[in-house]
Amino acid sequence: MIRIGQFNRLRVSKLLNFGAYLTDGNEEILMPTKFLPEDIKDGDSIRVFLYHDNEGRPIATTQIPYACVNQVATLKVVANGSAGGFLDWGLDKDLLVPNSEQRVRLSVGQNVVVWIYVDDKSGRIVATTKLNKFIKDQGSSYKSGDEVEVVIAETTNLGYKVVVDNEYWGLLFKNEVFKPIEIGDRLDAYIKEVRPDGKLDITLHSPEKNEVEDLGQAILKRLEENNGTLPFGDKSDADIIYREFGVSKKVFKRTLGMLFKEGKITLENERIIQNKQ
Fold first, then answer.
1. Helix, strand, or coil here: 46?
2. How far is 171 from 138, CA to CA, in rounded Å?
3. Which range among 89-93, 163-167, 202-206, 228-232 shows the weakest confidence by mean pLDDT?
4. Lowest mean pLDDT among 126-130, 168-172, 176-180, 267-271
5. d(CA 14, CA 135)
6. Is the pLDDT assigned to residue 209 strictly greater than 60?
């Protein structure tokens, strides 16, 4: 079955002077000459991406888009027209975001987070910035510690709203973030907690052995930003530790112990002091 907006493996059924027809055994799709490999011949199998040309006809290409249908992507606005905004998605033909699918008016040069889909009415591949139409609130099939991929979609009072594995909403708390991130970033992350209502809390820190190493780097960074001292120690209140670093007091104490043994810090009267290297 031909899948528009996805990669398909098709067989060359006919070579012509303007391209080749490819088939899945039922339908034929044209691939223009400029996309044909030089050594292609009748009967060859080839992996192609299928989209629509300016006339709305299915067409095959060996170009690789930045994202496929039913995926979240961060794409740049390259033009505006009467029908909507146009995004560069890696193909000769730009991707339309109809005016009705824009939460706010798009600006040329702007990077936007969109969902790519096939419009039921027109049959065309389009994009929308109205992610709530496609992203689900509950991801109860996950468990704490599962590794996921997230796209930073928007900021909230608590932190960042993220799309988890192109399917679910998740929340990344700002006190869990110890490095610069921007809207549109695609990051490896972990399920911190699945709440009773099925909503997902996300962390960028591995719940396994890497958690101590990650926190160690975060503490050293904050020491550099605060003239080499921080007002915390192994007797600091657990709630304060969680609020400031997003980890349990147990993990915090293990991290301080690691940094102390490595000679990178000195612990003094509920202060962390960075040792000069």
1. strand
2. 12
3. 202-206
4. 176-180
5. 41
6. no
Give me the residues paired with residue 23 across strands: 11, 28
Q: What is the pLDDT of residue 251?
A: 85
Return d(Cα 271, Cα 223) in angstroms, integer: 11
Q: Domain 210-274's class?
A: mainly alpha
The percent of residues above 90 in pLDDT, for the chain, comes to 65
CA distance 132 to 161: 12
Average pLDDT over every residue of 7-35:
92
CA torsion, points 199, 120, 66, 152, in degrees to nearest 10? -20
- Domain 7-61 matching CATH 2.40.50.140: the answer reads yes
**Helix ranges restricted to H, the chain:** 210-225, 238-245, 249-261
Greatest distance between any 2 Cα atoms in the chain: 81
Residues contacting residue 40 through CB under 8 Å, at least 6 positions apart? 12, 15, 20, 46
Q: Both tokens of residue 9?
A: 């493996």
64-95 residue pLDDT tens:
999 999 999 999 999 999 999 999 999 999 99
Superfamily the domain 147-203 falls into: Nucleic acid-binding proteins (2.40.50.140)
- C-alpha 222/C-alpha 219 separation (Å) is 5
Cα 248 to Cα 265: distance, rounded to the nearest angstrom:
20
